[in-house]
Amino acid sequence: MLxxxxxxxxxxxxxxxxxxxxxxxxxxxWLSEAFSAEAFCYRTSDNLNKVMEFYKKESxxxxxxxxxxxxxxxxxxxxxxxxxxxxxxxxxMKTGQIITKETLITILKYKESGQNQP
Length: 118
What we know:
This protein is of the alpha+beta class. It has one domain (2-110). The chain is built from 3 helices and 8 strands; from the N terminus they run H-E-H-E-H-E-E-E-E-E-E. The strands form 2 sheets. Strands 1-2-8-5-4-3 form a 6-stranded antiparallel β-sheet, sandwiched between helices.
């Protein structure tokens, strides 16, 4: 199953996964259910800026911006109707724990346009 998750975003949406990022099956499942979406989540020990620079170099992705709210940082990209978000720190929704030592990459497509979007 991990192989399917690892290659899922690239196969389904044509979005390359950050080199060395590991699939996060639990977060992928939670987001898929919570937002009526098909989501692929990955974790990396690399910092947000390094991950952001990787995606800035990928052709076909539109950089939507980088933001900061308190101690939370994030960046967003789009490829058509696919959203790519990068977060550090982030909350593990299964445990409620704030994760600061890993960056979360989410590659997501809503099943129905506009439904349950944050």
